[in-house]
Amino acid sequence: MSLADDREALRQAPVGVFDSGVGGLTVAREIMRQIPNEKIIYFGDTARVPYGSKSKETITRYARQIVRFLQEQRVKAIVAACNTASAYALDEIEGEIDIPIIGVVKPGARVAAESTKNGRVGVIGTEGTIGSRIYSTYIKEINPEIQVMGKACPLFVPLVEEGLWQDPVTDEIAKRYLGGLIDSEIDTLILGCTHYPLIRSTLGRIIGEGVTLVNPAYETARELKELLEREQLLNEKKQELGMNCYRFYVSDMAEKFQSFANSILKYGILSARKIDIEHY
């Protein structure tokens, strides 16, 4: 096989996307929208969700196992579509593998720093993401004058996973979580968990029209496209129907995952296969 053939085969390889559960589907959805020719292999760690309340050591071990699985699937690049994994494990794993890997934190931090007018940025996320102060670190590298205020919102993930996207309970919890950020007069709010875009309308209504919402899922898909172009890995061949372009794997509850995925992905999914991630 010639070098040109090798390069073309690499372009045709899938992108790996992983998350603690279903939230990363918002990233996969943006990749499908923005880079429609790319094949995707998605892994949702539904047996071990949530990641946000677990230690750095545990999250790093989980992420390593998932990356080994994705490498076995011969992916050409990996997206850590989980804020907690991006915060705790990404830098370490990046130095251990020979394929490009990106997370969701840096793209969101960059856009927030560019968007704020009054220098007051809010971040909502899991306890792990907020506790790591990773968004604050990246934003202050761009502009040390920006004030970053974080708020852990642990109940949002189970509310989203139960499908309570537009429910009085979600409204009430959001009011309690966002009250302090509203009082802080932020003008930009980072949705620092990939579950949160699914309740974006609720969050936007409560935080107010004057606050810009930053969706790292959208920005991450843009960064992935730029990465693939830079590395000459972008797949320019249009995928044909029936080519099994998107494959989904989980560590538990395949049927529930499939039902959830079909509610948010335009094309839906035919199946989700359960695997033993501890094997890796």
Helix/strand-derived class?
A: alpha/beta
Q: Tell me the Rg in angstroms.
A: 18 Å
How much helicity do the residues have?
40-55%
What's the story with the biggest beta sheet? 6 strands, parallel
Walk me through the structure:
Helices cover 46% and strands 16% of the residues. It has two domains: 3-103 and 219-279, 3-Layer(aba) Sandwich (Rossmann fold), CATH 3.40.50; 106-216, Rossmann fold, CATH 3.40.50.1860. The radius of gyration is 18 Å and the shape is globular. By secondary structure, it is α/β, with parallel strands linked by helices. The chain contains 13 helices and ten strands. The protein has helices at 3-12, 25-34, 56-72, 83-88, 90-94, 105-115, 127-132, 134-142, 156-161, 168-183, 200-207, 216-230, 254-264; strands at 15-19, 40-44, 77-80, 101-103, 120-125, 147-152, 188-192, 212-214, 246-250, 273-274. The longest helix is centred in the first third of the chain and has 17 residues, at 56-72. The strands form two sheets. It has a six-stranded parallel beta sheet with strand order 4-3-1-2-9-10, sandwiched between helices. The protein has a four-stranded parallel beta sheet with strand order 6-5-7-8, with helices on both faces.
